[in-house]
């Protein structure tokens, strides 16, 4: 018998799709010229049996009586109506399964799911300045598409500058409440990012969302609340960690403000925690990453692959430096940071401080300063994590922290760009193990970027080495016994990048990580390009391969054949999502 559209999608995606008819929405009339799908096999992932026939799709299992009660008696013959009706019906738990789930949440054992779940980052402007969902029709169509492809969930930036914009303690969750309910309706999990930074001025920033108005007002009164470089340039992306514990924000400290925000989020969305919202990523710096704003792109200040600049010249950071120097018996070291470390766009060998032979970084003074600078960052992370783990204790969510993948000049002795960002990582010192150990103490996930990159794709004159960097981080997290998650740093839609992500996520870095994989991967980012037919076909195959895990024996080409069939079946619906996102 012929399979209906919902059955075909369910069998191809491995997800049961409800064949509902939505009467309140009109079918899309958008059209697009969809070219034939071209398969590009990977040379090093060949099928053992290239002539093997693809198994026929399996019918969706019969629904239980309870499910059948909620299912309409018939399905519309209209293809576009069927596409509109895509909805994922989660399998109903048996009493035994429900008990097992409760036992796990209460500390019992949970059977581990194989493979690496894939999440997709939502657009940065998913919630508007008016606290509503942006492009609601496009968002709804896109969430349908992602769920049908086997995506585990989505990542959403919850902007401090939108929610608490007008006044301290006045939280407006409007757009987020609606967006989270949409995710729940589509059966998608959510990684919620507590975004305490400004949007705008970094790679990929497509909109501008400043810090809350009342916070920027306090910065205008006291400019030293902002990170400052040696030339007096202020950075307004994120509050200086030098004032973390000082009541500089209308009687509250910055850390108290972050904690109050997270507590308000917990209280407002407690009904979704643990089921829909499964992870809280805590922002700790620019771009939400645990680092200093050492390489700001705004106004052309920094350009890749410059070394960046230290950010320790506001009065609060200098006060801490002075105290540390006095405690070390070297008060003369406490008046300022390095003054011979060059400018943002210099290279290591251009500067006395970072040069390989006789560089200041490898002197007693350099070791003192870099230890203090990196320790301040670690203490900042620990303070916020302590609040987060306490606030979300028992909520059934993971806590994660994002660390930047600074891979340029990695092949030099000093690793200058990492040092200016606050990672004391050199040829002679592992700067990521202390971060991993700090996260392990708080039970947090180490989330790392640049997973998609290969060394030879980057400028070799700048000694870029993203693969070696990812390997170092994988080894550090393994030693600290902290879960590692990944993200791609830049948008990529090609199989070459997907293959690299698959390889990196397997964590086979030392030949002994037999059962270890990344705990999750978050794909950057949902946009119209993702839904281009060729890109979508490759993405569907990538998600399927990630879900199967490194123990899967099927080759890429077999998965791609299924993906091609899937794209053909879902073409009208994916087309609708792509068109809606462009308007």
Automatic annotation (TrEMBL):
Coiled coil (residue ranges): none
Origin: domain of life: Eukaryota
Enzyme Commission number, as recorded: 3.2.1.2
GO BP terms in the entry: polysaccharide catabolic process
Gene3D superfamilies for this protein: Glycosidases (3.20.20.80)
Annotated Pfam families: Glyco_hydro_14
Similarity comment: family membership: Belongs to the glycosyl hydrolase 14 family.
Protein name as catalogued: Beta-amylase
């Amino acid at each position: 018998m012929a399979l209906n559209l919902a059955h075909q999608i369910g069998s191809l995606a491995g997800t049961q799709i409800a064949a509902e008819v939505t009467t309140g929405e009109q079918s899309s009339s958008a059209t697009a010229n969809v070219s034939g799908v071209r398969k590009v096999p990977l040379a090093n992932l060949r099928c053992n049996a290239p002539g093997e026939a693809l198994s026929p799709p399996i019918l969706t299992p019969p629904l239980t009586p309870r499910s059948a009660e909620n299912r309409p008696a018939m399905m519309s013959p209209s293809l576009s109506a069927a596409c509109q009706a895509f909805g994922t019906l989660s399998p109903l738990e048996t009493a035994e399964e429900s008990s097992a789930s409760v036992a796990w949440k209460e500390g019992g054992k949970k059977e581990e799911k194989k493979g690496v779940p894939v999440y997709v980052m939502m657009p940065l402007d998913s919630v508007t300045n008016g606290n509503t969902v942006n492009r609601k029709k496009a968002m709804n169509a896109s969430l349908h598409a992602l769920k049908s492809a086997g995506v585990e969930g989505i990542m959403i930036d919850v902007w401090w500058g939108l929610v608490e914009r007008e006044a301290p303690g006045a939280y407006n969750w409007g757009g987020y409440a609606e967006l989270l309910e949409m995710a729940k309706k589509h059966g998608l999990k959510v990684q919620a990012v507590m975004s305490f930074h400004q949007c705008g001025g970094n790679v990929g920033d497509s909109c501008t969302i400043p810090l809350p108005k009342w916070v920027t007002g306090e910065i205008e009164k006291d400019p030293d609340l902002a990170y400052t470089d040696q030339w007096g340039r202020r950075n307004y992306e994120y509050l200086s960690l030098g004032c973390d514990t000082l009541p500089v924000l209308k009687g509250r400290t910055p850390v108290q403000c972050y904690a109050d925000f997270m507590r308000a989020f917990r209280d407002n969305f407690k009904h979704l925690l643990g089921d829909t919202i499964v992870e809280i990523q805590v922002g700790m710096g620019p771009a939400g990453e645990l680092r200093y704003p050492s390489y700001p792109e705004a106004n052309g200040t920094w350009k890749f692959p410059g070394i960046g600049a230290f950010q320790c010249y506001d009065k609060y950071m200098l006060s801490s430096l002075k105290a540390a120097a006095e405690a070390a018996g070297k008060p003369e070291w406490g008046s300022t940071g390095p003054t011979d470390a060059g400018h943002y766009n210099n290279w290591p060998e251009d500067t006395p401080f970072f040069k390989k032979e006789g560089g200041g970084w490898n002197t007693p003074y350099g070791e003192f300063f870099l230890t203090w600078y990196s320790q301040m960052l670690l203490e900042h992370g620990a303070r916020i994590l302590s609040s987060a783990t306490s606030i979300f204790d028992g909520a059934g969510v993971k806590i994660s922290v994002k660390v930047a993948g600074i891979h340029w000049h990695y092949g030099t002795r000093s690793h200058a760009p990492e040092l200016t960002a606050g990672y004391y990582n050199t040829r002679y010192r592992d700067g990521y193990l202390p971060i991993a150990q700090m996260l392990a103490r708080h039970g947090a996930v180490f989330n790392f970027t640049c997973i998609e990159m290969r060394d030879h794709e980057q400028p070799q004159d700048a000694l870029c080495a993203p693969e070696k960097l990812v390997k170092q981080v994988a080894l550090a997290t393994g030693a600290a016994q902290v879960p590692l998650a990944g993200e791609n740093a830049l948008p990529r839609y090609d199989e070459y990048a997907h293959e690299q992500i698959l390889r990196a996520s397997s964590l086979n870095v030392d030949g002994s990580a037999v059962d270890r994989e990344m705990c999750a991967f978050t794909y950057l980012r949902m946009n119209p390009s993702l839904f281009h037919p060729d890109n979508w076909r490759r993405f569907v195959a990538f998600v399927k391969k990630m879900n199967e895990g490194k123990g899967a024996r099927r080759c890429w080409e077999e998965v791609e054949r299924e993906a091609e069939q899937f794209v053909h079946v879902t073409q009208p619906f994916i087309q609708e999502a792509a068109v809606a996102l462009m308007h």
